[in-house]
Please model this.
Amino acid sequence: MKKITSYIIIGMLLIGASCKKGFLDQYPQDAIAPELFFKTETDLSLYVNGLLSLPDAWQYMGDQSSDNAASTAALEIKNMMIGTPSSQTITGGWDWGRLRDINYFLDNYDKAKVAQDVKDHYAGLARYYRAAFYFDKVNRFSDVPWYSGTINPTDSALFKARDPRTLVVDNIMADLLFAVQHIKEKVSSGTPNMWAAKMLYARIALYEGTYRKYHPELNLQSTAARFLDSARAEAQDIMNSGKFSVYAASSPQANQDYATLFSSQDLLLNREVILARPYDYTKDPSNSNSNLNGYVFNDYEQSPSRDLVQTYLMKDGKRFTDIPGYDKMMYTQEFQNRDPRMSQTLAAPGFKRASDLTPYIQRLNKNFTGYHQIKGYANYTDNNIAGSIDFPVYRYAEALLIYAEAKAEMGSLTQADLDLSVNLLRKRVAMPNMDMGAANANPDLVQAAKYPDVSGANKGVILEIRRERRVEFALEGYRYDDLMRWHAGKVLEKIPEGMYFPGLGKYDLTGDGVEDIILIDKSLDIPAEGSKEKNSLGIPLVYYKAGSFGDNVTVYLKNGNAGGAIVTENRARTFQDPMYYYRPIPATQIALNPNLKQIFGWQ
Model:
């Protein structure tokens, strides 16, 4: 039986910041004095457990802001690209209550009468959480005020200006160094341990290293290598530990091991999962429910993009986009002989839901691509199982890809490095090895167009590592941050498209060669149920009206009745560089603290 860490809210201690100054409120006068609470290990544990905050199953809905998916949601970045954003309209992210909770602990934990290594363990966890907090702030605002302790309303530091990104990031890395040196290896299930801290260290170091390398507006290119090497070192420590491995329980020729990582009721003992967020619906239906089937699979907001589909390689390792006419392939053709991870991430022709006796016929709808996501979809009829699927917070796969990418960006990657990292992931699904020489000799032009900043002798292999990362972590919430750190925001100007249809007519969507749907002209009426045309199996066809965007139809095609890819939107997008890599400080906060200044063109 899995052990679930309690999410403890210490009402008298963890007080959010909600004062009129907007953040870092003072410690309330009616709260328990720190000298009366911070006495024992139990006290320290209670407080730090109350700080526990892990990514969860909603990460499967986290690629909506990227080119991996179309979305009907009012996404911030999409609204920015089609509107006129300002500090008056973008008002999120400038919240500091969690930081105050963390710093209050760090100000007081040393009062406890316990061994130093015990104190350091809990301080390490608090600094891990602070590093994660500030990493999010740097991603959004770049330069932000750094506060290492609790601030009271009378403190002048409350009205300080932004601190430079360099200072803040150096402090983040110092926090993480302390965390990896002092957090214990054995902790309660579902809480970060030493290896989880190393993963966060490696992730942030890779992010910052590549961000500095590819973002000229920061003028920090000369400092990128230090972070890239730190990412390499932490990832290599994880690899050399011998404690983790790529999950592969079955034969690569006929396996579903990759999919198992996202459909398992117990990841706590899986050697690929460095940290899991456990769920148990049977114990706590209100707060421990991982069942997102109505969001992930149905037409809620997110639908996978055709660009993602076209990114997967062929099963023999060749590029799908090198095939003549690839851009006019229909759904049943696109899934033939592809990287097996594609059909373990997206619903392929013939996919069958556990509740159905026959294969699912892809449903088409306005503003959706037609492709359906199965990563994060709990394909069970038992709600107790569907709601108890653990989420992998950190996977060993990420350490392998961080290692490969960092070495490639530093120019020190070898074929042996690829064999120790990327090719272990490919082996799991029986894909051919990545060949460094071949990749560099013939860089993919489609990939190169996405990432024009990539150059040099390792251009080809860097592009292929980026492909591998996109495929391995598709629809897990990584993609947007990757595009930002690679200086690839312009990719988001392309409106996500869906399935291709050559025109009106009947089409097979289950892969058996028998028509399942029919696209008719907008001027026609859809027949009543008893009057619909039937296919050769005697099953009525599913009818859709098709036409151009804005017509009174269900399926928008790029060329109307003449066919084309499904169109999800039509408003032109503009990504302003470098402005849109960052967000403004809300105008209300500037008014309260005039020392805060907008940067990168924000007003």
